[in-house]
Amino acid sequence: MTAKVIDGKAFAAGLREKIGGEVARLREEHGVVPGLAVVLVGEDPASQVYVRSKGRQTVEAGMESFEYRLPAETDQETLVTLIRDLNSDPKVHGILVQLPLPDQLDEALVIAEISPDKDVDGFHVSNVGLLNTGQASMVPCTPLGSLMLLKDQLGDLSGLEAVVVGRSNIVGKPMVQLLLGENCTVTLAHSRTKDLPAVTRRADILVAAVGRPEMIKGDWIKPGATVIDVGINRIPTTDGKSRLVGDVDYAAAAAVAGAITPVPGGVGPMTIACLLANTLTACCRQND
Ligand code: GUN
User: Fold this and answer.
1) Span 31-115 CATH architecture
2) Contact 38 CB / ligand 1 (< 6 Å)
3) CB-based contacts of 118, cutoff 8 Å, min separation 6
4) What contacts 136, CB < 8 A, 6 or more positions away?
5) Which among 98, 144, 146 is the best mutation to test ligand 1's pocket, defined by most ligand atoms within 8 Å of the CB?
6) From the candidates 121, 204, 229, 247, which is the catalytic residue?
7) Residue 166, annotated as binding a ligand
8) Residue 141 host element (H or E)
């Protein structure tokens, strides 16, 4: 079998176009322009690339982008003061603080300062609690984008066996909640799971979010399974350059799976598209 390639790049482009249409309608009919504030502390190169691309796509969708770049040595009080200012700014509907933060900053305390209504990452404990109890909330962007691709591919997910590998707050845990909400039978596996290949081989839906390059091998996958690879890992190549790979050994997995997301061009583009969707949702709720 050769797996169908799930084109996240095309799906995300379609989603951004729909969002752009809604943004234009909001502006014309209500005079409201959704605004997204992104805060970057320090100079982590990968974070800089993400933040630049978030800013560009926000503007392309017709929204306002506010970027705050703070030095790596920024203290907690300065960051908290900025977040409080953004919380009370009516032009800002969504706030995203790029993670990871430098060591002197307390991530949990920083996230707790973001108004839950403006928490477009869905990381605030009150949004986590709402998601975990099946109530309307801001849903973290990468799991939300992954679920959209799964539903587009498979339709009804009821009763399917889903295995999520990786227990992060950003992806693994919220992904479990979303799949439960779709009536899947869900297993959350991780780096300490015993006989991980036996667990992943049960999966009709396999979501890989461990951050280890090409860890999941072809023979860990059930024939015909749908594989969502959330990993984005840069590995060196023999010519001294580097390339991006996922958490799944793509060539081997594509020979076994029914459908698979590539890296790049799979889940990655969905994350920013869902961030724009969450910003639009936040703006509509704040102007209701
Ligand atoms: N760093 C890596 N992924 C994310 C994300 O989805 N949101 C934020 N704020 N930081 C990240």
Assistant:
1) 3-Layer(aba) Sandwich (3.40)
2) no
3) 86, 87, 92, 93, 94, 95, 282, 286
4) 130
5) 98
6) 121
7) yes
8) helix 141-154
CATH no. of 141-268: 3.40.50.720
Give yes or no: 241 in active site: no
Tokens of 183: 């009536």
Closest atom, ligand 1, to C-alpha of 97: 9
Is 194 an annotated catalytic residue?
A: no
Q: Is 91 a catalytic residue?
A: no
**What ligand 1 atom has the least distance to the C-alpha of 47?**
1
Q: How far is the CA of 108 from the centre of ligand 1 (A)?
A: 13
Cα–Cα distance for residue pair 234/131, rounded to 1 Å: 32
Each residue's pLDDT expressed in tens, for the chain with a length of 288 residues: 799 999 999 999 999 999 999 999 999 999 999 999 999 999 999 999 999 999 999 999 999 999 999 999 999 999 999 999 999 999 999 999 999 999 999 999 999 999 999 999 999 999 999 999 999 899 999 999 999 999 999 999 999 999 999 999 999 999 999 999 999 999 999 999 999 999 999 999 999 999 999 999 999 999 999 999 999 999 999 999 999 999 999 999 999 999 999 999 999 999 999 999 999 999 999 998
Instruction: Tell me how far apart the 2 most distant CA atoms of the chain are, in Å.
Output: 57
Assessment of whether the complete model's pTM goes beyond 0.80: yes
Q: Bridge-partner residues for 206, per DSSP?
A: 163, 227
For ligand 1, whether the C-beta of 146 sits within 6 Å is: no
| Domains of the chain by residue range | 31-115, 141-268
Confirm or deny that 232 is annotated as ligand binding: yes
